[in-house]
Amino acid sequence: MSTQSTPAEVSMETIVALCKRRGFIFQSSEIYGGLNGFFDYGPLGSEMKKNIRDCWWNDMVRRRDDIVGIESSIIMHPKVWEASGHIAGFTDPLVDCKASKQRYRADQLFFSPVVVDGKTVGYVSALEGENTAAELQSAAETLKRKKAIQGELAPVQPKDLTEAQPDEIPLIPSPATGEPGSLTPPRAFNMMFETYVGALRDASAVAYLRPETAQGMFVDFKNVVDTGRVKLPFGIAQVGKSFRNEITPRNFIFRSREFEQMEMEYFIHEDADWAQCHKDWIEWCRQWLISIGLPDSHLSLYDHPKAKLSFYSKGTTDIMFKYPFGVQELWGIAARGNYDLTQHAEASGKPQEIFDEATKKKFVPHVIEPAVGTDRIFLAALCAAYAEEQVTDEKGNTETRIVLRLSPRIAPVKVAVLPLLKNKEALVGRAQELYKKIKRKYTAFYDESGAIGRRYRRQDEIGTPWCVTIDFDTIEKDGTFTLRDRDTMQQTRITEAELFALLEEKVY
Ligand code: ATP
């Protein structure tokens, strides 16, 4: 018997603690105090991340006829980033607090004038969060009380610091000190990590760690067209590390400085119905997230307002996920026109065109770009899967069971094989034999220590969908074993062939 908590109730502290306790994710360089914005994936985490990546690659590339994969280098010619606009414009607005030496992203630092009876009597500030407006309102009430001002307090008008007038900046309190006067006006901060290639350390040797994988697809476009036997519409996909010197890495692996991206550039004819294609890709991405276990109820769409789009962009829609810290971008699907290929054609002097057999004309294809971070999917999947349940055992005792209801597609371990007793050679022998057979194709875990109930709980906590128990009936009677289902906790007897059929159906 069990009662289930909803995924949204889980806190980030709980998820971070579970990740460390069970070896999903560690702080990078932890023995040296960690490095802000960098993480390591442990034994279970690296399996689960690989599963997410493999599912994406299989569904996006291998199972389709119109998409091919590449793997481009992380450090590319610096001219790539000049042409793409990253050197000039890949910036976030940075604000310093001179008093505390803290740095903030101006678009994540909110403020409001405090208005009493129509008169501004001061300013309040708060960092972006789920309750920013409420925090600002409560700070405004405190300020009014502190200053002993009578009158009616107007509701706060939250704006971010990029919208502040120059004469307002000195009046806005720093979130670090609570005092005004120490915040600098926002300035552009380029997020690319610089390095040097070769033995020289001068300006001619400067190169960058890529801040996105997408440029690899544009720069290799002609190579793929000339060798890949592709015909429009077609896509080029890749998975790999990207690096951004984020001003405020936060929310665990949600915003880090080194992360993995899974991006695809879908090239279409210049006259194609880009809006329909964009819509189709948004739906494909949403369905794919559902296929790896993200609940539809936690997904929503956000259309970027036309006024905030880059001049070349035709439209961008983000698939948002309801994380414990708020609804945030998970997957961006952008219609980028032919901007990137045109830029590279101009900068390199090499035309990036395709010949249209129908019109006998050359043109630069347009592109739809679904771009997602593997780490953000990982975090979303964990948050949605986590549940704490009150369960009652057959003796009537109640206990809390922690269970990760991960989709079998991405669960780090698919099956745990448990001999009922560890001191019975026949049970152990059969369990080992089955374990080795499963391991040829699926991740499996062998566990013979402790009471069977405790062994089930250990698997529940890491999201293993099935446990099989080898008991005396297995070796003495019909060879069947007990299959215990993680979510329902139901036990059924099945044959080896049925187990493999189940795995074949659910793990793909
Ligand atoms: P944000 O607005 O959250 O900074 P973005 O719009 O700059 O993200 P894109 O440049 O569109 O992000 O990158 C595509 C995807 O890469 C994002 O949707 C996200 O899933 C992932 N991503 C981007 N930055 C990070 C990061 N710092 N850490 C982890 N994942 C990231």
Compact summary:
The protein has 508 residues and is α+β, with helices and mostly antiparallel strands.
Overview of the molecule:
- This protein has 508 residues and is of the alpha+beta class.
- It is built from 14 helices and 27 strands.
- A hairpin with a 2-residue loop joins strand 7 and strand 8 (119-127).
- Helix 2 packs across helix 10.
- The longest helix is centred in the N-terminal third of the chain and has 20 residues, at 43-62.
- The radius of gyration is 27 Å and the shape is globular.
In order across it, which strands form the biggest sheet?
4-13-14-20-17-16-15
Question: From the helix content, strand content and strand pairing, which structural class follows?
Answer: alpha+beta
> Hey, roughly how much beta strand do the residues contain?
25-35%
Gross geometry: globular
Radius of gyration, whole Å: 27 Å
Give the number of DSSP strands.
Answer: 27
Unreliable parts: 1-8
N- to C-terminal distance: 30 Å
Give a list of the ligands.
Answer: adenosine-5'-triphosphate
Kindly state the percentage of residues in helix.
25-40%
Number of helices: 14
Mean pLDDT over the residues: 95
**Main sheet: strands, sense, barrel:** 7 strands, mixed
